[in-house]
């Protein structure tokens, strides 16, 4: 299974990502790090999944991202 999780660096998105990875899904996470709350908090949420097999992350706004291409596109893997 492949999944695209928007807001992957947020509280809900990071937990959803973890649950999908636990079930064996390949997950592409996307987030634009808006200033809604501090970037350090979102980065900590992201760090939980960053080293996990099957997780890739894209930093982009949904309005400008090529969403159909994301699951197939090679994305930046975060250091764990």
What does this structure look like?
The protein has 80 residues and is α/β, with parallel strands linked by helices. The protein is built from two helices and three strands, in the order E-H-E-H-E. Strands 1-2-3 form a three-stranded parallel beta sheet, covered by helices on one side. The model is unreliable at 75-80 (pLDDT under 50).
Brief synopsis:
With 80 residues, this protein is of the alpha/beta class. The chain is 30% helix and 20% strand.
- The value of Rg in angstroms is 11 Å
Distance between the termini: 23 Å
> Which strand order do you get reading across the main beta sheet?
1-2-3
Q: Provide the residue-averaged pLDDT.
A: 87
Strand fraction equals 15-25%
Number of separate strands = 3
Order of helices and strands: EHEHE
List low-pLDDT spans. 75-80
Sum up the overall morphology in one term: globular
Structural class determined from secondary elements:
alpha/beta
Task: Enumerate how many helices there are, as a single number.
Answer: 2
Oligomer: single chain
Helix proportion of residues, in percent? 25-40%
- What composes the largest sheet? 3 strands, parallel
């Amino acid at each position: 299974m492949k999944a695209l999780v928007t807001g992957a660096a947020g509280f809900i998105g990071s937990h959803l990502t973890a649950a999908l990875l636990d079930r064996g899904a390949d997950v592409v996470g996307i987030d634009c790090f808006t200033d809604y709350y501090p970037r350090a908090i979102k980065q900590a949420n992201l760090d939980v999944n960053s080293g996990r097999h099957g997780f890739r992350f894209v930093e982009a706004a949904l309005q400008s991202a090529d969403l159909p291409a994301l699951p197939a596109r090679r994305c930046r893997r975060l250091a764990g």
